[in-house]
Amino acid sequence: MKRTLFALAMTMAAVVPAKAEDAVCYNCPPQWADWASMLEAINEKLGIAMPHDNKNSGQTLSQLLAEKAAPVADVAYYGVTTGIKAGNEGVVTAYKPAGFDDIPEGLKDPEGKWFAVHYGTLGMFVNVDALGGAPVPQCFADLKKPEYRGMVGYLDPSSAFVGYAGAVAVNLAFGGDLENFDPAISYFKELAENDPIVPKQTSFARVVSGEIPILFDYDFNAYRGKYEEDGNFEFVLPCEGSVRVPYVMSLVAGAPHEEAGKKVLDFILSDEGQAIWTNAYLQPSRPVELPAEVAAKFLPASDYERAVAVDYAHMERAQAGFGERYLNEVK
């Protein structure tokens, strides 16, 4: 049975409120990073059910802040910069799951307030059949061409982490750095002339349907489309280069089901949990090799050499300022 059918069934089931012995995860959408399979495994292996949740990273932090006096969530998942913010704001608490020590330095808070669970590489998720005969774009610069008018989508970089990651990638590609976002602002101003689509939340289904033919997105979503959906999909790692970015998780401070939340985080960092991410075309945060049959489905390693890591703490400090500039100068 296709995962899409499973996701539909689970979405229908998600209207049932979580029971006292269960757990709540903010920003665990079934169509993103194959959270559907992870939540299914957590239910089967731990007996813990977590409702699907379609927030983005920024919405997750806003909700955690709003509920700080009476938390609802037990664990949270978000882009690394939002995880750093959550730690600084005191809405998450220190916890080091089994396997924490295996995560490389720089990809975890030393106290355990946040830690990477997997990586993605930012590029273009392309529905080739929806391009209307236009060639598959190979570079960020291509997307400003008239043949891609109304075809390009990117998540709102002032709210969604993947949108901000895309902005950082574009900025580096055209000569900027984390102190100077002028190239990204110029790029998005020019792209605005080409009628882009700018959703706030994950848009996998809209690419699959052809509504958004080209989306700034991670490799894992594009590979999932390419190998698991009907249609003709590709992942393009732009010719100018891109960024590799970890996603992180935290235990919520004052979590109403704290022990269940800890068990969930332990499982996600376990060998079994990390293996589930690899089945979803994700690089796990703990140093393990991708299974050969999964690795064979990725672009060549030589292409991935164009994707770089950045100073994620610096990236976090720059996020609010870039978001303000985007809203004031582009949106």
Automatic annotation (TrEMBL):
Pfam families to which the protein is assigned, alphabetical: SBP_bac_6 (PF13343)
Q: Is Manganese one of the keywords UniProt gives this record? A: no
Give the molecular function GO annotations: thiamine binding; thiamine pyrophosphate binding
Q: Does the keyword Cytoplasm apply?
A: no
- Offer a single GO CC term for the protein: outer membrane-bounded periplasmic space
Query: Which residue positions does the secretion signal occupy?
Result: 1-20
> Keywords in UniProt for this one?
Signal
Q: Name one GO biological process term.
A: thiamine transport
User: What is the protein named?
Assistant: Putative 2-aminoethylphosphonate-binding periplasmic protein
Species source reads Roseibium aggregatum
- Source gene? phnS
